[in-house]
Amino acid sequence: MIKKLGIRHMSVLDENHYGLISENDVQIVKAFASSHEFLAKDFMTQKFIQVKADSFLKDVIKELIDKKLDCAFIFDDKNILIGIFTMIDALKILYEKLG
Alpha-carbon distance 25 to 7, whole Å? Predict the structure, then answer.
């Protein structure tokens, strides 16, 4: 799905866990897996930050930099995941400001 949708990160959700699969994760699994019969939860990462939708962008980017992470999960007031903010998104904003 990552390749089909042209995205670099995808959320993995179930009743108890949030996780993230990146384009790089998929490449690693493909290189080492002897079978294509594996579950997303088995190789998802849980290294991301969670922020509210009304968080200041500057604070989100600072936390991503400080923790050396590539993305943040964005939650609404009801703690429902509504999106993913990535470092590419941050770079797009910087590019627009420089343009």
Answer: 13
pLDDT digits (tens, 9 = 90+) for 42-92: 778 777 899 999 999 999 999 999 999 888 999 999 988 899 998 899 999
* DSSP code, position 19: E
| DSSP letter for each residue of 44-94 | -B---EEEETTS-HHHHHHHHHHHT-SEEEEE-TTS-EEEEEEHHHHHHHH
Question: How many whole angstroms separate alpha carbon 70 and alpha carbon 52?
Answer: 17
At residue 16, φ and ψ (nearest 5 deg) are -115, -15
Q: Which two tokens stand for residue 77?
A: 């007031």
Q: Helices 87-98 and 57-67 sit at what angle, rounded to 10 degrees?
A: 130
